[in-house]
Amino acid sequence: MKKLTSTILAIVFGTVLVLTGCGSNNSKVTDGVNKMLDTTTQLSKAIDNGDQEKVKEVGPKLEDQWKTFEDDVKKENKDLYEKIENYLDPTIAGSEAAELDKEALKILNDQLTNALEELADKTK
After folding, report:
1. Gap between the Cα atoms of 5 and 99, Å rounded
2. Helix, strand, or coil here: 106?
3. What is the CA radius of gyration of the chain?
4. Cβ(27)–Cβ(117) under 8 Å?
5. Which of 7, 28, 59, 65 is the most buried (most CB within 10 A)?
């Protein structure tokens, strides 16, 4: 009886550890996506205002934020990972350009925002 109880407790404990680990990945992705969405909102406002200095300040933050959880997205949502990567790099490059191309950067930022919102919906 004691051995059976110990075995059951071990299984339950192992399951809890596995589920806790999975939850932390989702939480990590959710937190990261929310931070990036806040940043794309800031970037959008700066683009609309033609504030190139703010664009150059905010745009590069996206890369640092993405790095914190991109591996988790790549493992669990490969299609969305690629979609975000396709819009992320040009958005960052556009934000760092010497001359602000408001129209192009706005389109890229909107596409990135849409991809991030899609990921946010998937991780709920």
Report:
1. 69
2. helix
3. 20
4. no
5. 59
Q: How confident is the model at residue 124 (pLDDT cuts 50, 70, 90)?
A: confident
Question: Tell me: the pLDDT tens digits for 2-39?
Answer: 555 544 544 544 444 444 444 456 899 999 999 999 99
Average pLDDT over the chain reads 87
Report the pLDDT value the prediction gives residue 92, as an integer from 0 to 100: 97
Measured over all CA atoms, what is the biggest interatomic distance in the chain, rounded to whole angstroms? 75
Asked whether 87 and 115 are in contact (CB, 8 A), the reply is yes
Q: What's the token pair of residue 104?
A: 């192009």
Q: Is 87 within 8 Å of 105 (Cβ atoms)? A: no
* Domains by residue range for the chain, with CATH: 27-122 (1.20.120)
Distances (CA, A) of 53 to 43, 58, 61, 113: 11, 9, 14, 21
> Which token pair is 28?
């990590």
| Cβ–Cβ under 8 Å, residues 107 and 47 | no
Report the amino acid identity of residue 54.
K
The predicted structure's pLDDT at residue 38: 98
